[in-house]
Design brief:
Blueprint (H helix, E strand, L loop, with lengths): L9 H7 L10 H10 L26 E5 L9 H13 L7 E5 L8 H8 L3 E5 L3 H4 L11 E3 L2 E6 L9 H15 L2
Amino acid sequence: MGLNDLRLPPAVLSRLYPTLVIPGESGEAQRQTQVANPIQSQKIPETPSPTAWKYLGNNQQKILVVVNYRDAVHLPDEELSFLTSMLAACKLSLGDVAIINRNNFQNVPYKEILSHFQSRIVFLFGIEPAEFGLPVSFPSYQVQSLANVTFLYTAALEERHTDPLLKSKLWVCLRNIFSI
């Protein structure tokens, strides 16, 4: 008998694969299938597990870029292109940052996000500090330090295409943060 012929009992399969996705079921039906599993007594976690964090980049410099797009996994291509050129001007690349879409992490507290990514610099593009969950409020285009993390809240990336003044304000802040 070879490995391809091995048959596992349902109890073993449910322990190996606690979340089974049945093709053709909607998201709610999948959720009910997971909760109804008798072997798995725990509830579905509200926050993502470490393997479920969706982000773009390698986070080598511990720089977190937070955007908010309902219709994109991370961010639209045009905004990614602008962000990439902005990073290049700061002598950084996508490998240096982690880009998360706040829309994917609505129920995750900011402290958990900062802890997971070990962020030392956080850019909030189009997300007000209070919306991100920060206990302080500060104006846009003002570099702000809080608990050894540098924050910058600015307009959303797509707004830079229509307003060159916003692009220049951002550049002034980036020069301040990265000493360029």
